[in-house]
């Protein structure tokens, strides 16, 4: 994984991949991604612990995914805990030569656990706050092998909100926080340091290609 990833993210993803390849333990995915409202009327596409790393087409991944945290992970947090989610493509433009990666695909703050819905395994995460950085769907170039699209969840420090995130990161105070070029070669460690984020508490990914 590129040097622009923090050691915390590298460690979390390495452990995730290792456990996911062990059939005796299954995947260690702690985030569920649900891509709803499919254009062709098909059922929502779900990426969870049973199929982490599965292939999702760019069309299927067009809607911003709804997130859910594994119930076991949610149980360790206080009821008023807020979370921050980011999504990244580390493989741009090509997995063999990812000099533009990671591309920051989205930032959503003020996520909270909804204990009124969900099931025994997953607790939905919801937010009434507009995304700090709106989600963009996968767009790997057609000659490329599949890209990974990684979703990471952190506990959101107290007092950190959309305005504070923009100010600390030096992003635009209103409107689009970053230009498309500003999303490229994103240094995840800088975001973690500037926002005072701790360990990754939720992770999952899917692959996509044209």
UniProtKB/TrEMBL annotation:
Gene3D superfamilies: PEBP-like. Coiled coil: none annotated. One of its GO terms (molecular function) is peptidase inhibitor activity. Signal peptide: none annotated. InterPro entries: PEBP (IPR008914), PEBP-like_sf (IPR036610), PEBP_euk (IPR035810). Pfam families: PBP. One of its GO terms (biological process) is regulation of Ras protein signal transduction. It comes from the Eukaryota. PANTHER family: PHOSPHATIDYLETHANOLAMINE-BINDING PROTEIN, PROTEASE INHIBITOR. This is Phosphatidylethanolamine-binding protein. The lineage of its organism: Eukaryota, Fungi, Dikarya, Ascomycota, Pezizomycotina.
């Amino acid at each position: 994984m590129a040097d622009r990833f923090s050691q915390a993210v590298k460690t979390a993803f390495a452990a995730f991949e290792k456990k996911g390849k062990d059939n005796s333990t299954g995947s260690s995915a702690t985030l569920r991604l649900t891509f709803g409202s499919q254009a062709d009327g098909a059922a929502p596409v779900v990426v969870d612990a049973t199929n982490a790393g599965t292939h999702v087409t760019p069309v299927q991944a067009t809607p911003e995914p709804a997130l859910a945290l594994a119930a076991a992970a949610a149980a360790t947090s206080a009821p008023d805990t807020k979370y921050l989610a980011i999504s990244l493509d580390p493989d741009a433009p090509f997995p063999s030569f990812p000099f533009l990666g990671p591309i920051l695909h989205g930032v959503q703050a003020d996520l909270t656990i909804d204990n009124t819905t969900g099931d025994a395994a997953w607790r939905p995460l919801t937010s009434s706050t507009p995304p700090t950085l709106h989600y963009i769907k996968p767009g790997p170039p057609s000659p490329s092998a599949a890209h990974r699209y990684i979703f990471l969840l952190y506990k959101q420090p107290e007092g950190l909100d959309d305005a504070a995130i923009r100010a600390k990161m030096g992003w635009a105070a209103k409107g689009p926080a970053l230009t498309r070029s500003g999303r490229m070669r994103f240094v995840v460690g800088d975001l973690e340091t500037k926002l005072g984020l701790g360990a990754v508490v939720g992770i999952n990914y899917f692959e996509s290609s044209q």
